[in-house]
Backbone:
């Protein structure tokens, strides 16, 4: 009886000093030197993936379902890079299971495993979409399991006071890129990706208008309209522009753009003695809260934030000074 193949593996050709993928009796040269072990391992992984063909049928592996959804749909979506993180979480738990194994019990187990209500709900919605995509494109007769999403968590109400903001900025005074990030977020309520992607070409220091998206950028469901800048943030921006000269990005470290100021933010937050809910996104919550507290008309605040009036009213409306004022005084 012939010996069973152990599958594709890497082999170092000592004559050529290069890595070769050996698969049974066939060999595939990678052209990578002996020192390029990580690249060789990546080549082996790509070779194995290219050989794998999803089994067509009514009960496929969920790893194949998620892979097809990622390659055939998510790869063509603007926000696909972020969705892939959720697909990764799904694949680690569901990848070795089949569609028929999805049920109420397994859903509860996954939610408990993730221990993150909002994230688990979003990820299970993508799992449902992946299964629907597989049925539409690969197995039209497949029975689709019913995935009941966990309850939608209440929107976050946390915000920073002005004194807390001052404490944070004082501790961030020796971390210029973080101080810039905070000031822009505090005075515009923009999302993290908008702030870190901001370029000087998107800021008009004469008219005081900041574009949240570069010209020609495809719009997503996350609204990002232009925002009028106040005198305080304009003062800082003009000063930073004089310091930056020809630097392209507003938020940078020695000329290199900063995409996620995670470690510096967490360090400064601890030094300032602020609670754990003070994350970068709290700047957006804080801007919305303080605008309504100071009586800014809700439609104007919603337009400045890039948020619908309905969402702003339901989440932050109670901070407005005239919220339910007339109803509360009815005798």
Residues:
């Amino acid at each position: 009886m012939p010996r069973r193949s152990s599958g594709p593996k890497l082999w170092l050709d000592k004559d050529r000093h290069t890595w070769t993928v050996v698969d049974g009796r066939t060999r595939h040269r990678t052209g990578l030197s002996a020192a390029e072990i990580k690249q060789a391992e990546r080549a082996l992984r790509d070779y194995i993936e290219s050989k794998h063909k999803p089994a067509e049928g009514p009960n496929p592996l969920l790893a194949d379902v998620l892979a097809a959804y990622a390659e055939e749909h998510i790869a063509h979506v603007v926000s696909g890079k972020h969705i892939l993180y959720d697909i990764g979480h799904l694949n680690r738990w569901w990848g070795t299971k089949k569609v028929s194994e999805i049920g109420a019990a397994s859903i509860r187990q996954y939610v408990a495993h993730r221990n993150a209500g909002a994230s688990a709900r979003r990820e299970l919605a993508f799992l449902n979409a992946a299964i629907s995509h597989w049925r539409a494109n690969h197995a039209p007769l497949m029975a689709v399991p019913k995935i009941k999403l966990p309850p939608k968590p209440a929107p976050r109400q946390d915000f920073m006071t002005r004194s807390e903001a001052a404490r944070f900025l004082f501790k961030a005074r020796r971390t210029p890129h973080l101080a810039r990030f905070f000031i822009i977020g505090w005075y515009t309520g923009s999302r993290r990706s908008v702030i870190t992607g901001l370029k000087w070409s998107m800021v008009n220091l004469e008219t005081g208008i900041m574009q949240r998206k570069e010209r020609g950028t495809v719009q997503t469901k996350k609204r990002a309209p232009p925002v009028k800048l106040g005198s305080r943030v304009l003062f800082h921006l003009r000063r930073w522009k004089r310091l930056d000269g020809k630097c392209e990005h507003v938020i940078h470290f020695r000329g290199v753009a900063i995409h996620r100021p995670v470690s510096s933010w967490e360090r400064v937050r601890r030094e300032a003695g602020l609670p754990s809910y003070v994350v970068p996104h709290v700047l957006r919550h804080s801007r919305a809260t303080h605008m309504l507290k100071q009586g800014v008309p809700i439609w104007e605040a919603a337009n400045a934030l890039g948020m619908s009036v309905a969402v702003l009213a339901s989440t932050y409306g109670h901070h407005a000074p005239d919220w339910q004022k007339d109803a509360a005084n009815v005798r």
